[in-house]
Amino acid sequence: MNSSLRADQPATSPPRAWVVVLPFVLATVVLGGVYAAVAGRLPEHLATHFGPNGQADGYTSPGGYLILSIAPLAVFGIVFAVLGRRSGAGPSARWQTIAGYAVAASSAYLTGATLLCNAGVPDASAVRLPYWHIAVALAFALLAGGVGRLLAGPGDRAARRAPGSEPRLDLPGGSRASWSHTVSSPLMAAVSILVCGAGLVLGFTDSWPVGAVLLAAAVVTGACASVRVTVDRRGLALAPTLLPYPFRRIPLHRIVDATSREVVIATEFGGWGYRVQPGRSGLVLRSGEGAVLRLTSGREFVVTVDDAATAVALLNTYLDRARSK
After folding, report:
1. What is the pLDDT of residue 298?
2. Residue ranges for the chain with pLDDT beneath 50
3. pTM of the predicted model, to two decimals?
């Protein structure tokens, strides 16, 4: 399909790399400072794990505990930086930045509190870590998350277009075009395989009715794990990648208009797969770019897929043609 958009999409910049990595660097510096301040007063073995009553039930050497505390911060910093680069701009990257600040702050607080509780105690078995420290750690997480939100910059709400303002494709009169793209979820594919295996094991060893239910669930999950999204003059269709028949088709006459925007699964849908909620439904296999269809029923249908802007432009072009007849 040879096409061009009539209007440029407004761009938003992702959080800068230093903003994403900053909380983990600060947490490492703080922990290093706390350790240096109390190193001379720490027992030979630190109390590092605590039971339901706050009593110590696990011990580690001071140096080992420092390494085990700082290493995850480095790993998390790298992971969040990579996730931020892959997410680009939009709500997904900003929520990941907020989560990074919350994780770094809560981890640093609990680790530092553990070191301070051990300082000056001759017998580590006498160390207690009251549960109120968890509440304080959550408070630090919320505060740090707010700071991360400010540093991440404004969201891309301005990038959401008003109905009718989405770009169209420059198609010659009477010509036809189609658009197709595959979206996949390795996580859902893995879950499908695991559920299928569990169903077979239960079927052969215990109960075939239960095994059959699990096998059916595995088939449904597997069918949604990789889906081909197609837009043409008939509307939008979703079909399993390995099967030619769509399991969901939305004809053109049921669509009012279409827009493209960033979709955040965790905050908008609470999970992956085919989701149904009051006022909207959709196939969401990842956060990121998505097509949002406003239907004549008043509901929305959302599908997260790469190059959603082109799919939306083509849909709106066909909608304009249908209304001009």
Report:
1. 93
2. 1-12, 156-159
3. 0.53
Question: Would you state the pLDDT for residue 157?
Answer: 44
Over the stretch 12-29, which tens digit does the pLDDT of each residue have?
A: 455 567 778 888 889 889
Whole-angstrom CA distances from 246 to 160, 227, 238, 241, 276 are: 29, 9, 5, 10, 18
Do the beta carbons of residue 311 and residue 3 sit within 8 Å? Answer: no
**DSSP states of 14-76:** PPPHHHHHHHHHHHHHHHHHHHHHHGGG--SSEEEEE-TTSBEEEEE-HHHHHHHHHHHHHHH
Among 186, 188, 213, 160, which Cα is nearest to 274's? 188
Specify the pLDDT at position 93.
Answer: 67
How do beta strands 179-184 and 226-232 pair?
A: antiparallel
Long-range CB contacts for residues 126-134, cutoff 8 Å, separation at least 24: 126/56, 127/46, 127/47, 127/56, 128/50, 128/54, 128/55, 128/56, 129/47, 129/50, 129/54, 129/56, 130/54, 131/54, 133/109, 134/110
24 in Cβ contact with 73 (< 8 Å): yes
| Cα dihedral 77/184/12/278 (nearest 10) | -110
Residue carrying the six token digits 């800068």: 16
Q: Closest Cα partner for 30 from 96, 132, 107?
A: 107
**131: which DSSP letter?**
T
CA gap 141, 94 in Å, rounded: 15
β-strand pairing of 300-304 with 280-284: parallel
pLDDT at 11: 42
Distance CA 16, CA 21 (A): 9
Measure the CA–CA gap between 278 and 299, rounded to whole angstroms: 8
